[in-house]
Structures are given as structure tokens and as C-alpha cells.
Design a protein that fits this description.
alpha+beta; two-stranded antiparallel ribbon; 6 strands; Four Helix Bundle (Hemerythrin (Met), subunit A); 10 helices; 4-stranded mixed beta sheet
């Protein structure tokens, strides 16, 4: 758990470097998230960090209800997130940055105090503290890339992607179920880390596999790259579908 929380803190630091002294006008730069500018992306991270902190403190339902007050029922997780951002859009950049920074620090502190197996409520149902930390790492990495892209920058991949790649592998049954499909059988991932190490996530009796750069797999799971546009290689009955359905978010 310590290394995972440290990875989250490092990823938050990478985003903080992008936001530090960013001129107000650049906060309005459009990102690859449809309809969201840099300020919207950072606001979304601030809101969801607050929800995660509330989860660790037994206040998830209360804080989520406050953030969603008056917004009406959402048709999906993405719709709910979009409604929360729209409700608070237009705050001064300095306020949004400060709110995110407070939540980022608070989340690291909250997660560091928990045992990895602690069960916590979350958007898609109850999960472990380790899994919540990994989802926050994944989302922070995804949106740091969104902000960087809006600013004309590219963040080099790091081995912080390890837990994210593993999350994508572990949650394949959930990803398929969310799409109304079932896996024909277990799937193996054979990935190369940004530093050149081999990351193998294997399951007994695997029928399908995905091989290639971990950074590409994580980008596909983040819905930032089309699997067909990568060098990832698949095999087995579920191989192609994995690249269409794999995800690292609720």
C-alpha cells in the first residue's frame, strides 16, 4: 500500500507541475475530454478526490449527495460527473487549483492510514482501499495527460503505470459485463514497462492474451487511444474485444 500511495503522490506532483503558475487564460484551453477545458478537468479531479476522501471517512453518501444536489438523476457515471462539473464551472483558476491541491494531499494522507483490504464504498460499488488508491492513480494519470495535451505538452510514461495496467487486467470481467458481454475465459497480459521490464499478468486457463507496451495498453484502457492504432497484439477468442472494452474507470 505504501508504494501505491507514493505512486499516487508522485502522479499528483506531475500534475501540480503543469498547473503551477499556469496563466489564467490557459485554463480555458480545450482538452480531449469533449466539452471540458483544463479548469473543468481539474475541477472534476477535485470533486472526485473529495468523494474518495469521504469514502475513507464513512461520509461517501453525504458528500456525494452534496456534490449532486439539485442536479437530477444521472443516466450514467459519466453523465453524473459531467453534471457535477457543470454545476461548479466558472470558478477562478486559483480557487480550482487550490481546491484540487488540498484534496490531493488529503487523499494521500487518508489512504496512507488504511489497510489495503479495508472495504470502502465507491461509485461502482464497494471496493478495497488498494483498489480505490489504484483508481485514483489511474484517473490522475489520465487527466494529467489531458491537461498536458491541452497545453501542447506530452508527459513521458513511467513505471507508475504498473498498478494501472494490473487494474485493467483484473477488472476485465467488470468491463465486459458493463457492455453486456461475457468473457470466453481468462485473459493474460504480457506487457513491457516504460523502463523495459516485463510485466506479466496471468490467469490459470487463459484463452486469450494481449501483448505489447504497457503505456499503450493503459492509454487504450483510458479511452485515449484506439486499440487498432497501437502495436498491441491480441490472440484468442476475446483478444480483439479486450481492446474495445478494457477500462480503468467506473
Amino acid at each position: 500500500m505504501d508504494s501505491l500511495v507514493a505512486a499516487l503522490a508522485d502522479q499528483q506532483g506531475e500534475l501540480a507541475n503543469l498547473l503551477e503558475e499556469l496563466p489564467d487564460g490557459r485554463w480555458a484551453a480545450p482538452t480531449r475530454c469533449p466539452g471540458w477545458d483544463v479548469a473543468d478537468v481539474v475541477l472534476h479531479l477535485a470533486q472526485t478526490n473529495e468523494m474518495a476522501i469521504a469514502s475513507t471517512a464513512g461520509r461517501f453518501a453525504e458528500v456525494t449527495a452534496r456534490l449532486q444536489a439539485g442536479l437530477g438523476p444521472a443516466v450514467s457515471v459519466d453523465d453524473g460527473a459531467a453534471r457535477m462539473v457543470a454545476a461548479e464551472r466558472g470558478r477562478p483558476p486559483a480557487e480550482v487549483r487550490a481546491r484540487w491541491a488540498v484534496g490531493a494531499t488529503g487523499l494521500v494522507d487518508a489512504l496512507a492510514s488504511l489497510a489495503p483490504s479495508t472495504r470502502l464504498p465507491w461509485v461502482a460499488g464497494e471496493l478495497s482501499a488498494r483498489t480505490l488508491a489504484t483508481t485514483r492513480l489511474a484517473e490522475t494519470w489520465i487527466h494529467a495527460g489531458d491537461v498536458a495535451g491541452a497545453l501542447g505538452l506530452e508527459l513521458p510514461p513511467s513505471d507508475r503505470l504498473g498498478p494501472i495496467a494490473r487494474l485493467a487486467w483484473r477488472t476485465l470481467p467488470y468491463a465486459f459485463a458493463s457492455a453486456g458481454r461475457s468473457l470466453a475465459g481468462p485473459v493474460d497480459f504480457h506487457l513491457t514497462s516504460p523502463s523495459g521490464e516485463r510485466w506479466d499478468f496471468v490467469a490459470e486457463g487463459a484463452l486469450s492474451s494481449v501483448s505489447g507496451p504497457a503505456a499503450e495498453l493503459c492509454a487504450v484502457a483510458a479511452r485515449r487511444v484506439d486499440g487498432a492504432a497501437t502495436s498491441l497484439v491480441t490472440s484468442g477468442p476475446d483478444g480483439p474485444a479486450v481492446l474495445n472494452l478494457v477500462r480503468t474507470y467506473a
